[in-house]
Amino acid sequence: MILKRYCSTVLVCLFVSTVGHSKGLENQSSANTFIEKTGSPTVDLSAACTSGVEKNIGNFDNGSLQGWSGVNAVNPSNGFNGILSVVPSGGNPAGYLRAVDTAGAGGGPLTVLSPSTIRDSLIGDLTRFELIKWDVLLPDVTNLTSSTTAWVKGADGTIFRSSGALSPFTPAANWFSKSASFVSSNGWTRFSGSASYSSVMANAAAVYIDVEAIIGLGTEAGVDNIRVCKEPVEPVFSCPEASSIRLTVIAGGGFCEDAQAVLEGINSNSVNYVNWSWLLEAANGNQSGSSISGSTAPIYINGGHYNGDQMDVCAQTEASNGTSCDNVCANFVMNCDTTNTQGGD
Ligand SMILES: [Ca+2]
Ligand SMILES: [Ca+2]
Question: How far is the CA of 27 from the centre of ligand 1 (A)?
Answer without folding.
Answer: 32
